[in-house]
Design a protein that fits this description.
This protein is mainly α. Helices cover 61% and strands 7% of the residues.
Length: 89
């Protein structure tokens, strides 16, 4: 997220636009479970419903990069990372 938000900030600066005039947001999927087994089961269920999904390991790597996955503690940590990325700059 830092890289994506950084590109937005850079573009605003290049255009001479105040960064505070733009609201950044993020929409993503959340795969949450009380333990690893529970959230992995949710990822597998989503993979089965996705006609373009490949093997589980590749799908898991993809959603882990772009989505919030894991236990509640892990999800809180990821949301904190996103908040930091959005506010830095």
């Amino acid at each position: 997220m830092s890289e994506r938000f950084g590109r937005i900030r850079h573009g605003l600066d290049a255009a001479g636009r105040d960064q505070a005039t733009v609201t950044t947001s993020l929409m993503t999927w959340v795969y949450l479970g009380v333990d690893e087994e529970a959230w992995l089961a949710r990822v597998e269920r989503a993979r089965r419903l996705d006609p373009g999904a490949g093997p589980f390991d590749a799908y898991l790597a993809d959603v882990s990069r772009d989505c919030i996955v894991g236990t509640p503690d892990r999800a809180v940590s990821r949301v904190s990372e996103y908040a930091e990325a959005a506010s830095s700059g």
